[in-house]
Amino acid sequence: MMEIRVRKVINYLDYHPDLIVFGIRNLVGYLPSLYCEMLKSTPFQTFEHFMKRVPPQLQWYWLAKRMASMFPDVPLVLYRAEDLRGNERALLSALTGLPASVFEENAQKERSGFSKKTIRRLKKLSETQEVTRSDVFRMNRRFPKSAENPGFDPFGDIRRERFNKLYEKDLVEIAADPNMTLLDFANLS
């Protein structure tokens, strides 16, 4: 299914990549972050409903293998998103061959996230009315993520450990696959 949609877009755009690069991230942080980003631009849904749409086989190595099979002659480079902060210019330099100094650093390094309290309030509001994007932004401003309002973290210890093990397994498999390169930021500069 994914391959068919990707091929349609590639054919429509007449696009032939020379290099494919994407960041991977532990699902413990990635899925809540993706959910919160979706809240900013799509109709409200609870996290539980969102998780029903996540493929149970979602693993980065599985996705990377599918991408590699779609573009067998195109180098596939992956990086750990957890390592990116502060290394953005080194990454761009490594990928383009240009010196890191030509890339400007983004002054706004932090994007506002969602607090656990915001998500709880939005879920409660959804029980009595349709939640609009205005409601989402209003609630996020009212209960910003802070020391008093920790970030949205929906996973218990068992699921967290499962995702941690899957991520470690993915990293080992990606690093061992000769058709993929897992960047090590320590060796980029």
Description of the structure:
It contains 8 helices and 3 strands. By secondary structure, the chain is mainly α. It has a 3-stranded parallel β-sheet with strand order 1-2-3, with helices on one face. Helix 4 (60-70) runs parallel beside helix 8 and helix 6 (116-126) runs antiparallel to helix 7 (133-142). The longest helix is centred in the C-terminal third of the chain and has 20 residues, at 157-176. The radius of gyration is 19 Å and the shape is globular. The mean pLDDT is 89.
What distinguishing features does this structure have?
mainly alpha; three-stranded parallel sheet; 189 residues; 3 strands
| Relative strand content | 5-15%
Number of strands: 3
Question: Structural class per helix/strand content?
Answer: mainly alpha
Order of helices and strands: HEHHHEHHHHE
Give the distance, in angstroms, between the N- and C-terminal Cα atoms.
39 Å
What is the makeup of the main sheet? 3 strands, parallel
Poorly predicted regions are none
- Give, in spatial order, the strands making up the sheet with the most strands: 1-2-3
Percent helix: 40-55%
**What is the helix tally?**
8
Cα-based radius of gyration, to the nearest Å: 19 Å
Layout of helices and strands:
Elements: H1 2-13, E1 20-24, H2 27-39, H3 47-52, H4 60-70, E2 76-80, H5 88-96, H6 116-126, H7 133-142, H8 157-176, E3 180-182
Helix pairs in contact: 4-8, 6-7
Quick recap of the structure?
With 189 residues, the protein is mostly helical. The protein is built from eight helices and three strands.
